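Input (structure):
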């Protein structure tokens, strides 16, 4: 057995509660654009999976994430939770781009299909979420994750509850 080397990873974040309250004062798209330009900090989950918001437009959200060894499962590849977290994030943000100020959302379901494995050798992956049917009570979304060569790694569908808090 080879010698085991302990590694560490430091996670830093800003308390998300003030930003969540601020989100209700802005359209969903304006909120995400403010996050992209740095005037609103990213959510804490972003530091866990090296998540970056790349694009937000009505009904569309595009994010990238870079896996590291801390995302591995016991069989030596990136855990399915990494895929699911990325897909849930991009689906939710795609819905958020369609919401007016004062409206919130939450995931009701997420159905993931794992098509290819991810390792650290895969490098940065890009996820795209597309709203297929917006709504005032529920919104439907589809998403995918691709590698740098455009190979499809996973797909998802999601339903989000839309509500006024």
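Output (sequence):
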């Amino acid at each position: 057995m080879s010698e085991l080397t302990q590694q560490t990873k430091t996670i830093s974040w800003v308390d998300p509660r003030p930003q969540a309250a601020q989100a209700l004062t802005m359209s969903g798209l304006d909120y995400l654009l403010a996050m992209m330009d740095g005037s609103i900090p990213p959510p804490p989950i972003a530091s866990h999976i090296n998540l970056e918001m790349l694009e937000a437009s009505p009904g569309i959200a595009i994010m990238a994430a870079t896996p590291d060894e801390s995302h591995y499962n016991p069989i030596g590849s990136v855990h399915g939770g990494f895929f699911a977290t990325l897909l849930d994030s991009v689906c939710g943000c795609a819905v958020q781009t369609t919401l007016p100020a004062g409206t919130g959302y939450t995931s009701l379901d997420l159905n993931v299909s794992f098509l290819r494995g991810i390792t650290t050798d895969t490098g940065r992956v890009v996820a795209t979420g597309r709203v297929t049917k917006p709504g005032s009570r529920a919104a439907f979304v589809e998403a995918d994750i691709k590698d740098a060569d455009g190979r499809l790694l996973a797909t998802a569908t999601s339903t989000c509850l839309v509500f006024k808090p």
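Notes: DSSP finds four helices and six strands in the chain. The longest strand covers residues 152-163.
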